[in-house]
Amino acid sequence: MKARYNYRIYPKPHQIEPLAKAFGCARVVYNDALWLYKKALIEGLPIPKDVDKQVITQAKKTPDRAWLSEVSNIVLQQSFRDLQTAWNNYFSSLKGKRKGKKVGLPKFKKKQSRQAIRFRKGGFKVHSQSVKLAKIGHVKMVVSRPLPSSPSSVTIIKDCAGRYFASFVVEIPQPIPPPSVPPNRGDAEGRGVGIDLGLTHFCILSTGEKIENPRLHKKMLRKIKKANRRLSKAKKDSLRRKKRKLRLAKLHAKVKDQRTDFLHKLTTRLVRENQTLAVEDLNVAGLIKNRKLSRAISDAGWAKFKTLLAAKCDKYGRDLIIVDRWFASSQICSCCGQSGGRKELDVREWECLYCNTVHDRDINAAKNLIREAGGQSDSEKRDNAVLDGAFKVRTQENPYPHTAPWLSPMSDCRL
Ligand SMILES: [Zn+2]
Fold first, then answer.
1. How far is the CA of 200 from the centre of ligand 1 (A)?
2. Is the pTM of this model over 0.70?
3. Alpha carbons 134 and 138: distance in angstroms, whole number
4. Domain boundaries, the chain
5. Do strands 115-120 and 124-126 pair parallel, antiparallel, or not at all (unpaired)?
6. What is the per-residue pLDDT across 262-287, written as a single tens digit (0 to 9) for each?
7. Catalytic residue among 52, 187, 280, 372
């Protein structure tokens, strides 16, 4: 099993220029090669076999590209290989040979966005507090945790906020023994936990716990708006504009880091404490189109939450069950299974007409999710699991055969 380990690196002032050159040259090689590939595609010709020679070896001899020789050849070769991979991924995705999300045609890289170069074995060496890069030298690295095995490659990244990172690809042993699940977690029958995603609270667990939504972007909104205003007033191509752009990028980076930290901590906790996790299959991309809610939803980071949850469940051997998007989790009574009918969004609490239980709307929904997920044994679950993107989706059986109407689509379109 492959994993990525990321570390912050701090290049010395005299290393920044060679790094910038390497980023620039790698980008030029990538773009030149992509241009040749696209030209061949448009003209309907086969892709020439010597593209790498054309864009690297021969290009170095021309006055236009002579500066390519100043950079390690490993970086340039790797940049070309990365383009080949991206190109092949697009075509295998197009033909349906590739699992998961559709991959687009590679795009030309821009000078202003995030920059990256990659070193394969032979081009770098890891030391206890630094990483040695070809033609750049030892770069100070903060090793927050040791690497589990020797890495096969390293990507050096400079993000928009001007920070440098080293990202290693390492092989980790599979399977990792799952951390112990404390007994009596989840609902009364110990089946696991249902997770209902919300905006007032980030999520509500079937155990009754409500997890606060940190609303990070909203907290920074005033500063971000101000930085945006100041940026728009600066003259084009001026040094001041550059500085203000960096300031804005730094604010965005801070929000992103805080959100990632929150989501990692939450998902790790949930996966550690439960064997089975049930979440709703929300159509995040569709919901974001709702203009009133888009900022709040993007801020909450639901999509990233689910990606992390899926990855961690996979790593630790937990069962993640994605309950159908049309399952009316907020309509059914989690006690007796009777449908209480559709409820408006402002109804936060309701009483079941059949068994007189008073429900908190969200906790009831979370309980229904895990109840819906717990209908089958583990082996059956695995048989029925179909990999759809990153998520295991299971065909559903009605656990309450006497109440069928809620299974009809569109019965609970809550937003
Ligand atoms: Zn009831």
1. 25
2. yes
3. 9
4. 2-171, 193-407
5. unpaired
6. 999 999 999 888 888 888 877 666 66
7. 280
